[in-house]
Each structure stands twice: as C-alpha cells, then as structure tokens.
Amino acid sequence: MGYQVEKSDQEWREQLTPKEYAVLRQAGTEPAYTGEYTDMKQTGVYRCRACNAELFRSDTKFESHCGWPSFYAPLAEDRVEYIEDTAFGMRRIEVRCASCGSHLGHVFEGEGYPTPTDQRYCINSVSLTLEPAE
C-alpha cells in the first residue's frame, strides 16, 4: 500500500499493547462503553495511537449513544482511508488511518443524527489518543 509510516508486524507488536494491536493492526473492536473517550467532553485533537497522525477534532465529536466515540467528520478527508468491509455478512465501510493503515472503526451514513454530514464515524477509543487544547 505504501503508507507514510510503515513498520514490520514485530515492530507494531513491540510498540502497541496487545489490546491496541488487536484493534489497530487486526481490525478488532473494543467492547461497547469501555473506551476512555466514549463520553469524553474535553476539547482537543484526536490522533492515531499507532502513528500520532491528527485524525479528528473534538468539535466534530457528538453523543450517539452507540458505545464508542462518534465523530461526524475527519479532520480532513486525506487523514483517513475507506475500505469496504463485508465481514459478518454486513456491508460496512471500514475507516483506517491514512498515514499508517491502522484500523480506527467504521463510518455509517443516513442514521438521522442531527449533524452537518449525516455520517457517524464510530471509532475505537483504543485507536486514538487525545491531545488536549491549550
């Protein structure tokens, strides 16, 4: 694929905790309502936990009551990439970090949330780190 940040599987395993590795590198999902950012209200920038790329801003985060942090848009379209995911008999759009290819979550459309985009980026907390605003 040719990502800006490329590491061997062994390097990722050394850098990430087993839980982080399972989600970021193996497209796992953390259990609903367990992530540290699900109900976070703090202002700042959410970065990829694997490569530190800026992905989302807190001003696009909204309360979706789905059990994971939800955003209505990425920081910029070039920050994420989209992969069709047909696992588990569902058609979903996987969201990955465009800098390192790490799995972030999925994006859903047309659910009726009162947001500017009618999209819900359902992102695993373990895929992110929050850099609080000054």
Topology:
Blueprint: H1 9-15, H2 18-24, E1 44-48, E2 54-57, E3 61-62, E4 70-71, E5 80-85, E6 92-97, E7 103-109, E8 119-123, E9 128-132
Antiparallel strand pairs: 1-2, 1-9, 3-4, 4-8, 5-6, 6-7, 7-8
Describe the structure.
This protein has 2 helices and 9 strands. The chain has a single domain, classed as Metal Binding Protein, Guanine Nucleotide Exchange Factor, Chain A (Beta Complex). The longest helix is centred in the N-terminal third of the chain and has 7 residues. It has 134 residues and is mainly β. The chain has a 6-stranded antiparallel beta sheet with strand order 3-4-8-7-6-5, with no helix packed on it. A 3-stranded antiparallel beta sheet has the order 2-1-9, with no helix packed on it.
Structure at a glance:
The protein has a single domain, classed as Metal Binding Protein, Guanine Nucleotide Exchange Factor, Chain A. Helices cover 10% and strands 31% of the residues.
- DSSP strand count: 9
Major beta-sheet overview: 6 strands, antiparallel
Strand content: 25-35%
What topology, given as strand order, has the largest sheet? Answer: 3-4-8-7-6-5
Keywords:
134 residues; six-stranded antiparallel β-sheet; mainly beta; 2 helices; three-stranded antiparallel β-sheet; Metal Binding Protein, Guanine Nucleotide Exchange Factor, Chain A
